[in-house]
């Protein structure tokens, strides 16, 4: 898979390194000569150019890319890169970094963004996830369909502990995608049972989040009945 990354700072280089290790073809683009550090990511292609300019993106052959990642430290630049990648070059997947959470509302399909990653929000979500059990935590927002990747750790007293996945009536527009149990990562089947302490990851419509949280956090009755 060919991936172009706009922004060759610490974030862009880190992403490039991870993707290269997974066998992908990477192009790093940055307009600052000081950011072109070929020796730090020697296996990547490098382009000294302004990713907001059509001529630069033509030179980068963006139409050949499967994914574009707008990873600069400037939200305005990331939005322009995303819009150009989607509308001018038809890139199938556009991922954009959100630096200021106040700008999150802009990072949607209108600007060509398929997935918006807010570093401040993700960090705060990870803090919340570490200290809260039974509370729903948003990890990632998907622009299409107004859906989020959310996580909830099943409390000890949850009425669903011991229940098989297939027996749970999940809210509409909600999908359980992963169960993390200790060091194991499970792809849930209908026969799998939920256990207290499981970290459950869902893709869920934002309008269903409260309903999902209520379902998973509901306590058992004193007699043990749901």
UniProtKB/TrEMBL annotation:
Q: Which GO terms describe its biological process?
A: monoatomic ion transmembrane transport
Residue span, RCK C-terminal domain: 137-218
> Which UniProt keyword terms apply here?
Ion channel, Ion transport, NAD, Potassium, Potassium transport, Transport
Residues annotated as domain RCK N-terminal: 1-117
Give the InterPro entries listed for this entry: K_uptake_TrkA, NAD(P)-bd_dom_sf, RCK_C, RCK_C_sf, RCK_N, Trk_Ktr_HKT_K-transport
Q: What PROSITE patterns does the database record attribute to this sequence?
A: RCK_C, RCK_N
Asked if Disulfide bond is a keyword of the record, the answer is no
Is Transport included in the keywords of this UniProt record?
yes
- One Pfam family name from the record? TrkA_C
Q: What is this protein called?
A: Trk system potassium uptake protein TrkA
What is the source species? Streptomyces ardesiacus
């Amino acid at each position: 898979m060919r991936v172009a990354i706009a922004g060759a700072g610490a974030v862009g280089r880190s992403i490039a390194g991870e993707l290269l290790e997974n066998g992908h073809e990477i192009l790093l683009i940055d307009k600052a000569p000081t950011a072109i550090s070929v020796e730090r990511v020697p296996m990547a292609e490098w382009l000294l150019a302004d990713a907001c300019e059509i001529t630069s993106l033509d030179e980068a052959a963006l139409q050949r890319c499967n994914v574009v990642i707008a990873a600069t430290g400037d939200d305005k630049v990331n939005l322009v890169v995303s819009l150009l990648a989607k509308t001018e070059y038809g890139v199938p997947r556009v991922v954009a970094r959100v630096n200021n959470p106040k700008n999150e509302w802009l990072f949607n399909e209108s600007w060509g963004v398929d997935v918006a990653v807010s570093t401040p929000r993700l960090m705060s979500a990870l803090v919340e996830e570490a200290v809260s059990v039974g509370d729903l935590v948003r990890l990632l927002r998907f622009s299409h369909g107004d859906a989020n990747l959310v996580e909830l750790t099943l409390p000890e007293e949850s009425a669903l502990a011991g229940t098989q996945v297939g027996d749970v009536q999940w809210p509409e527009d909600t999908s359980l995608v992963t169960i993390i149990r200790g060091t194991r990562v499970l792809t849930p089947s209908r026969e799998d049972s939920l256990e207290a302490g499981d970290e459950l990851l869902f893709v869920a419509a934002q309008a269903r989040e409260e309903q999902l949280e209520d379902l998973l956090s509901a306590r058992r009755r004193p007699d043990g009945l749901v």
